[in-house]
């Protein structure tokens, strides 16, 4: 745990720093009551930082395109977008989900599982996943 109740993000499965130039930011630690409330009535924002082996970029792009199209078509996905960092084989994928339950359900979908399996051998390093919960009113106020 860092200073002032913040904890630093880590790469799934390792404590190594990400190979992409963008570093994870500290996120505030929520109380159990805040976490339960957010899970019940909040939207989930998921940011994935994916470093790809330079020799595998085209193969990754095909799998990535298929995944983003399938995810965008999911009824509980509020928004999905992606970008590639300039001069890096690093992609950032942003997903906004209606709630945590919808996001977890999507993780079990064939679209998500196929993407995860197809990119394992294409990665330069493990992906960095950051999940943030927002009150449902945040999405409504900012998208009307």
From TrEMBL:
<dbReference type="GO" id="GO:0000137">
    <property type="term" value="C:Golgi cis cisterna"/>
</dbReference>
<dbReference type="GO" id="GO:0005783">
    <property type="term" value="C:endoplasmic reticulum"/>
</dbReference>
<dbReference type="GO" id="GO:0042984">
    <property type="term" value="P:regulation of amyloid precursor protein biosynthetic process"/>
</dbReference>
<feature type="region of interest" description="Disordered">
    <location>
        <begin position="18"/>
        <end position="47"/>
    </location>
</feature>
<protein>
    <recommendedName>
        <fullName>ABM domain-containing protein</fullName>
    </recommendedName>
</protein>
<feature type="domain" description="ABM">
    <location>
        <begin position="44"/>
        <end position="132"/>
    </location>
</feature>
<dbReference type="InterPro" id="IPR007138">
    <property type="entry name" value="ABM_dom"/>
</dbReference>
<dbReference type="Pfam" id="PF03992">
    <property type="entry name" value="ABM"/>
</dbReference>
<dbReference type="InterPro" id="IPR039862">
    <property type="entry name" value="NECAB1/2/3"/>
</dbReference>
<dbReference type="InterPro" id="IPR011008">
    <property type="entry name" value="Dimeric_a/b-barrel"/>
</dbReference>
